[in-house]
Specification:
Strand content: under 5%
Helix content: over 70%
Mean pLDDT: 84
Organism: Pseudonocardia xishanensis
Pfam family, one: DUF3618
Keywords: Membrane, Transmembrane, Transmembrane helix
Protein name: DUF3618 domain-containing protein
Structural class: mainly alpha
Distance between the termini: 62 Å
Number of strands: 0
Order of helices and strands: HHH
InterPro entries: DUF3618 (IPR022062)
Largest sheet: none
Number of helices: 3
């Protein structure tokens, strides 16, 4: 019949059960569409948050430079035009981050 001992057979059965358990867990994870969608949404939200934070820093730095030049009389352009350009830049950055 078989030249394996009962202990070897038990060990082989335990190993097969462990392998089947891992396979079942992997299949369950792949079938969890809701969980995967939540994870993807969180990743997108995180990217948008980081892009918005970067945009705020960029706007703050740019605005500080513009205000400094306007106060010194070096740049006489109206500040509202520069503000509009900066606002458009922030909008573009946030939209691009959300679409990725």
């Amino acid at each position: 019949m078989s030249d394996r001992t009962p202990e070897e057979i038990r060990t082989a059965i335990a190993e097969e059960r462990a392998a089947l358990g891992e396979t079942a867990a992997a299949l369950a994870e792949r079938a969890d569409v809701t969980g995967r969608a939540k994870h993807a949404a969180q990743d997108t939200a995180d990217r948008a948050k980081h892009a918005a934070q970067n945009a705020v820093v960029t706007v703050r730095d740019t605005a500080a430079g513009v205000v400094a030049r306007a106060r010194s009389g070096e740049d006489r352009r109206p500040l509202f035009a520069v503000g509009a350009v900066i606002g458009a830049l922030v909008t573009v950055l946030v939209v691009r981050a959300v679409r990725r």
